[in-house]
Design a protein that fits this description.
- There is one protein chain.
- This protein has 315 residues and is mostly beta strands.
- It has one domain (2-297): YVTN repeat-like/Quinoprotein amine dehydrogenase (Methylamine Dehydrogenase, Chain H), CATH 2.130.10.10.
- It is 7% helix and 28% strand.
- The protein has two helices and 20 strands.
- The protein has a four-stranded antiparallel β-sheet, with no helix packed on it.
- A hairpin with a 5-residue loop joins strand 19 and strand 20.
- The longest helix has 16 residues, at 2-17.
Length: 315
C-alpha cells in the first residue's frame, strides 16, 4: 500500500512537472489562429496576432522556433523591462518599460513609436505588465500612474481611464468575448472596463475586504464566461460577467489551506476544472463550482501558472 501511494505521488509530480513537454511537443502551423489555452474562452483578442496576450498557458506558438539560437538583435529602453511583449499580426512587438513608455518595435528591432504614460504619484512612471491586443488591434496596457490605456496601433491614444490605484501587478489584462477588459489593481480592486470607442467606462468593480487587500495575479476567463482572480490572502474569487454595478458579488470564493498569497493565475481544463497554485506550497484542484477535488503539497511555494492541464486522479 505504501509503495502504491508513493508511486501515485511520484506520478502526480511527473505529470505536473512534465506538462510543458506534453503540449509543447506539438509543432503549430502558422496558418492556425492564436489559441489562448485549453478550456479558456478566446475572448475578443486579435486572433490573427502572433501573441495578443502574454498569458497563454499551453505555451504553443503558431510558428516554429529558431534552430540556430543566435541573437538576431537587441533593443535597449531607458529602464528595466519586467514583462513579456505582445506581438501583433504584422509582427509589431509591443513592450513596456520602467521608463514609462510602451514601445512598438518592428520584427527587425527598429523602433516604430513609443507612447508615454501620464506619470506616477510615486516618482518615475513605469509599465510593469504585459499589454493585450484587442480584436480591432487596440493595445491595452496599465501603468503605475493608476491609468488603463487603450492605444491605437499607430501609437496614438484612443482613451485612458483612471482606475484608482497602481496597475502593475497583473501580468496582462484579460479580454472577454464581448470586449470587456478585466484588470486588477494593487489596492485589491478588480475592475471590468468597457471600451466604448472614444472612451473607457467602468462597468463594475469589486473591492476585496481583507487585512492585506492586494491582487498579484492576472484574471482568467473560463469557457462559460466566469472570471477568476486570486488575492494576497489566499482567496480565489469567481465572478459572473454581468453584475449589478451597485451590488457586485462573487459567485463563490475558495480559501486556501493557510491563507498564503496567490501570485499565479489559475489554469482551466477542458472540463472547467481549475488548477490553482499557492505560496503555501499546494496545488489546489477545484471544480467549476469552487469545490475542492484534491490538492498536492509541492513542499515549496508555487508562484507560476501550470503550463497546461492533465486529468489526474486523486492521490
Amino acid at each position: 500500500m505504501k509503495m502504491n501511494k508513493k508511486f501515485n505521488l511520484l506520478f502526480a509530480i511527473f505529470c505536473y512537472m512534465a506538462i510543458i513537454l506534453v503540449d509543447g511537443s506539438v509543432e503549430a502551423s502558422a496558418a492556425e489562429s492564436f489559441i489562448q489555452g485549453s478550456g479558456y474562452e478566446q475572448g475578443n483578442y486579435d486572433l490573427e496576432a502572433i501573441q495578443p496576450t502574454a498569458f497563454n498557458w499551453t505555451r504553443q506558438s503558431r510558428f516554429s522556433g529558431s534552430e540556430a539560437f543566435d541573437m538576431k538583435w537587441s533593443f535597449k529602453t531607458e529602464g528595466r523591462v519586467r514583462s513579456s511583449p505582445a506581438i501583433a499580426a504584422d509582427g509589431t512587438i509591443y513592450v513596456g518599460s520602467d521608463d514609462g513608455h510602451l514601445y512598438a518595435l518592428t520584427a527587425s528591432g527598429e523602433q516604430k513609436w513609443k507612447f508615454a504614460i501620464n506619470g506616477s504619484d510615486f516618482g518615475n512612471p513605469g509599465i510593469y505588465l504585459s499589454p493585450s491586443i484587442g480584436a480591432d488591434g487596440t493595445i491595452y496596457v496599465g501603468g503605475d500612474d493608476s491609468y488603463l490605456y487603450a492605444i491605437h496601433p499607430d501609437g496614438t491614444l484612443k482613451w485612458d481611464l483612471k482606475i484608482g490605484s497602481l496597475v502593475f501587478v497583473s501580468p496582462s489584462p484579460a479580454i472577454g468575448a464581448d470586449g470587456t477588459i478585466y484588470v486588477a489593481t494593487e489596492d485589491g480592486t478588480f475592475h471590468a472596463i468597457s471600451d466604448d470607442g472614444d472612451t473607457g467606462r467602468e462597468k463594475w468593480s469589486y473591492k476585496i475586504s481583507a487585512f492585506w487587500p492586494m491582487i498579484k495575479s492576472s484574471p482568467v476567463i473560463a469557457a462559460d464566461g466566469k472570471i477568476y482572480v486570486g488575492d494576497f490572502e489566499g482567496i480565489l474569487y469567481a465572478f459572473e460577467p454581468e453584475q449589478d454595478a451597485d451590488d457586485v458579488k462573487p459567485k463563490w470564493i475558495f480559501e486556501t489551506k493557510t491563507g498564503s498569497a496567490i501570485r499565479a493565475t489559475p489554469a482551466i481544463g477542458d472540463d472547467g476544472t481549475i488548477y490553482l497554485g499557492s505560496e503555501d506550497g499546494n496545488l489546489y484542484v477545484l471544480d467549476s463550482s469552487g469545490q475542492l477535488q484534491w490538492r498536492f503539497d509541492a513542499k515549496d511555494p508555487i508562484s507560476s501558472t501550470p503550463v497546461s492541464v492533465l486529468t489526474v486522479r486523486s492521490i
